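Why do we bother with holo predictions? Because pocket geometry can differ from the apo form. Keep that in mind while you read this record for adenosine-5'-triphosphate.
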Amino acid sequence: MIELKQVTKTYDTGKGALKAVDGVDLSISSGEIFGIIGYSGAGKSTLIRLLNGLEKPTSGTVQINDQVITAIKGVELRKARQKVSMIFQHFNLLWSRTVKENIAFPLEIAGVPKNKRDARVMELVELVGLTGRENAYPSQLSGGQKQRVGIARALANDPEVLLCDEATSALDPETTDAILDLLVDINKRLGLTIVLITHEMHVIRKICHRVAVMEGGRVVELGDVLSVFQAPKEAITKRFVAQVTETEDSNETIKHLRELYPTGDLVKLVFVGDQTEQPILTKLIRTNPVEVNIVQGNISHTQRGAYGTLILQLKGTREEIANAIAFLNNENIQTEVMAND
Ligand SMILES: Nc1ncnc2c1ncn2[C@@H]1O[C@H](COP(=O)(O)OP(=O)(O)OP(=O)(O)O)[C@@H](O)[C@H]1O
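The structure, written out:
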C-alpha cells in the first residue's frame, strides 16, 4: 500500500549538500504496524514528512495505494494527504479549544455539517477512552489524555494511514504502554496502517509487526520484529535490541553463573514464537533422567509471538546430558553449552 522507490532527500546546508534520506526502498502493507528506528539525525523525521507529502523527494517516488503522491500537487495532493494522518510527540493541540472542539477541528476543515460532526466527535471520544473529558481544555489533561485527543483528531476524517512521530517519547513508561495498547486496538478494529518512528526499541517490540533500522539516511536492516530481535545483523541493530534484552552471555555473566552453579552443564536455550507456549521443560524432565535447574530466563512478547532465552543447569552423566540436549534440538529449540564440567 505504501511504496517508496529509491527515495533521496538532499538539503542544501551552509556546509554543502546533506543527504538526510539516501536511496530508501520500502514497501509497507495495508493494515501493518511498521516501525522505523534510528538515532537522532538518522533521517526518520524527513522520511515521515516524505510519506505525507510535506516534503518532496530530491529523487525517487512515494506511492500510497494507487496514487504516486510525488507526481501530484494542488487540490489532488491535498485530497491524497487527507488519507494520511499524523500524531506528534508534543501533541500539537489547540490550547484554547476543548477536547471536543480539538477533535472537531479537522471535520470543520473538511466541511462536515455541525450535526454530523457532533455525532462523529462523540464516537471518537469513546474510541480513545476520553468519555467524560469532552469539555476539558488541554491544560487540564494528563500527557496520556492529550495524546488520546491527538489520536482522535487524527482519526476524524477516516484516514488509511496513521503516522506517529515519536508519539510516546514525552510520556512516562506506564502511559506509553497505555497509548501503545490503544494504537494496537485501533489497528485491529479499523484495519488502519500505522507507520511510527521512534528511538525506543521498547515501542518496536511492543506493537510493530516489522521494523526498519535507519542510519545515515539509509535503511540498514529490515525485517519481521521477531527475527530482528532474535538475530540482529548490523551493529546498530544489536545496540537497539540490547536496549530491551539482557545480554546473558557475556564472559563475565558466564563466569558469575559458573560460580553460583559449579557443577553440570550450563546450557542456553533460545525460544522463538510458538515454542514458548509449549511445556518443553515438563517434557524434558519426564523423558530424561537429568536434573534440571532454571538459572536465568528472559522471555519477551512481540506482536509476532514470543522470543527469549533460558539458561539451564543440567546435571547427570555425560550421556544423559547429551541426550537431553538432543531432545531439545529435536523440539526445534536452539541450544548452546555455555560451560561444562
Ligand atoms: N530542513 C532541513 N534543512 C537542512 N538540514 C536538515 C533539514 N531537516 C533535516 N535536516 C538534516 O537531515 C538529517 C536528518 O534529520 P532528521 O530530522 O530527518 O533525523 P531524525 O532521525 O528524525 O532525527 P531527530 O530524531 O533528531 O529528529 C540531520 O542531519 C538534519 O540536521
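The two ends are 55 Å apart (CA to CA).
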